[in-house]
Amino acid sequence: METPGTDSSVPPPHVLIFPFPIQGHMNCMLYLSEMLVYSGFHITLLLTDHNLSLLGSSSNNNNHSHPSSLPDIPRLRVLSIPDCLPADHPRNLDGWVELLDSLKTNACPLYKSLLLDLCKMDVSADGFPAVTCVIADGILPFMIDASEQVGVPAIAFRTASASSVWIYYCIPQLIQSGEVPFRDGADWDEPINSIPGMESFLRRRDLPSPCRLAKNPEDKVLQLLATCTAHSERTRGLILNTLETLESISLEQIRAHMPTTYAIGPLHEMVRAYRSQNNVCAHDKSVSLWHQDCTCMTWLDQQPRRSVIYVSYGSIAVMTQESLIEFWIALVNSGEHFLWVVRSDLLRGEEWTNIRDSLSLEVRKGTEERGCIVSWVPQVEVLAHPAVGCFLTHSGWNSTLESIVGGVPMLCWPFAVDQQINSRLVGEVWRIGLDMKDVCDRTTIEKMVRAAMNGETASEIRKNAHELAKMVNNSVVEGGSSFENFQRLIEYIKSLCKRNVQ
Q1: What's this protein's family per the entry (predicted)?
Q2: Which of 40, 258, 372, 477 would be 3's cystine partner, CB 3.0–4.6 Å?
Q3: Domain 14-159+235-265+476-501 belongs to what topology?
Q4: Beta strands, E only, 149-237
Q5: Which element (helix H / strand E) includes 457?
């Protein structure tokens, strides 16, 4: 990977990167930031004050110190703006629409003012040149428009799977065909025919949750996602954290409408591969809004190879007390060892410790003997551990990619947004796991845990997962599709920056 030239007449590219302020989006775009730094760019990563404070550093618009939870990388600085929500607002899936509305209505003018200031400075006090390009989260189209209004070219980045992006783009067709909203009494296993390229495997129940939940065509969330996705047609380009061979059908369809689309994932593996090949000291840090309990690694060290089922529902999913109890009893009854991530905000209105105390002595004893329950873990490291035999996951895209790279089969229990289609890809298209969507009873969960960990089914999906991991790992090294797409993206950003300063 080459560094841009030293022509003094052309300022070095300086890209401002603005993720939607939830952990999965921030992590993904931090990896992109690091890769762009390795390519010689200056990067400003823009977070919200709320999240920057959670990362261990108080912040205001003029603060660009690095929080302790973020890597200290040369030419990468962190700035922040307020999200303009009360401190106690739930910034999870229950409150993400309000967060988006506040960013659009209240924070966007602040962003525009900050960007104007960053464009005026030839060189700032910390040696950063003027911003010459913006890469903003694709679900922040108003930030992309604000960037262009200031005169800075902007590229969209969608952190979800290409397949979900393609479905969101096709929401108008789903509505026109009458397939969405679902009619009363609809068969959820009925095939969907309005998504080109997916007719052979897509069912009603595999559509993203906004399609499943909408009661009328004007549903706010449904229209919001359709509008955000259609907006990417009007941006300078679209970046996706995926790879050509993994989602070739969806990428082909997307490029028919958005030709300047770059598939450059999995980004976390791109970063790891670059560090390894160029002897870059690995800092192994990501954006974590929770304290990582690394004692789980010691516990894993004590378990036999492929004997542990790792359980995590991601960073923003929430669940009911009843669902958690069903999973808990099923995990214990399966007889398998399990490492279970239970975030402090996982449950709606209930402390999980209260639930633990209400369980039977048998379940509590089984947990003590075979279980390890923690609040958060270094997930990439966990998935690379030889003791892990399966990942019971919510099927978020970051988690899905991390499991694929680790060659770990999945047991999918999708919760919301793109997770339903991701779990269908895992179970039906790639055949590297089992899809357990729309099921939450202890008997079924126990049965599927056993199937994913032992026997003929486990052997098949383990073999498929191993083969897919090799294919994905090959994509991020020189000559691989993601590596080459990233080189093209670098040259494209340089061209935008040069035009912007002329």
Answers
A1: Belongs to the UDP-glycosyltransferase family.
A2: 40
A3: Rossmann fold (3.40.50)
A4: 154-158
A5: helix 455-475
